[in-house]
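Record type: monomer structure entry
Structure origin: computed from sequence
Chain ID: A
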Amino acid sequence: METELRERIINASLVLFERHGFHGVTVNQIVETAGISKGGFYHHFSSKDELLFVIHDIFITYVLERAASSNQQSLPPATRLRSIIKDFVSVFDIYKAHLTVFYQESIYLKPEHEEIVKRKRQQFKGIIQSVIREGVDTGEFRKDLSIEITTMAILGMVNWTYKWYQRSGEKSIEEIADYYIDLILHAVLSDSTK
């Protein structure tokens, strides 16, 4: 019941923030849309600012936990990178509304919340870098790869998905993930592992 109420608040705010922007929405509108009391809102969130942070944190935590889990497996770097990219791309479908609000409204995050989000994004980037570094060190990936540029290319390419991905589009999110994986692995694998 508690989790369900929290989800109702988040879902109502996602719809409202997407439509009217963070500053165009009041707590009263959120509780009215969610069909709850103001006390119910403040039981779960100390403020609208905290709610915005939680919206951001949900998908960042999801993708970070999945990447950390993939990276802990005793598998070759290419297999781990494939798994990380697949989970990363899936987030644009699972948390589509969260991401839209994130990109529209992240400038309104409080500095302390922004710092947490930034730290998690850095951790995620670090996991991708470590997998690429290991792939280069073991010879599975090309020796001439720039670990930093390759990491930023992957993050940039996949992050841009939020701009154009539509559930009703020609390709499913799984097909898009497979396409990215194919593209990235063809770029990073050494000739001996292709």
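Annotation 1: The CA atoms of residues 21 and 80 lie 37 Å apart.
Annotation 2: The chain has two domains: 1-45, 48-188.
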